[in-house]
Design goal:
Length: 215
Amino acid sequence: MSDHQARAGSLFVVTAPSGAGKTSLLRALLADAPLMQLSVSFTTRAPRPGEIDGRDYFFVDRPEFERRREAGEFLEWAQVHGNLYATSRTWIEGRIEAGVDIVLEIDWQGATQVQRLFPDAIGVFIVPPSIDTLRERLMQRGQDSAEVIEQRVAAAQAELRQAHRFQYVIINQDFASALADLRTIVQAAHLRFAKQQARHSATFAALGITKRKQV
């Protein structure tokens, strides 16, 4: 990690199958984290009830999405459940350089792309305690038909097989416990050697703590 990267914010890549509780956990995390922001993705899907353009997603049609993709504006993109999703490269890089922690809420395919470009990104995979619980949560949403719910459950089972790609896995059985786990991961990222050295350079120098040697 370079000195510039050490001074920059951290990038958290958070993935979960639909119904695992990822969105609720991230909203609770961000509620008391003023120096952390959720990345706003572009998508071609229609807004859900209560979603606001520019806050939850940038909602665009497929031609506009493809134009931006061809122009190289996206850090990553993927197709999920027939819809396209992407993250703005320029926005992400600018916020990280400004020292802001960024949370990317994306699918595992997009997470893999991001982690190739940002090796220091922290990957977090949130899982339900069981498939039955996942199905029940999807039903409680009241947004999808029984057929669509079963499609989402099948997709979730495939996604869960990708959990090994992430550094951290949180089992969201109890919301409070899962949120505490997520906060612990964020705190651990802030305590990494390079981050601490950049943040407390004078203290490190006074204590005679030097840069880690490259192995």
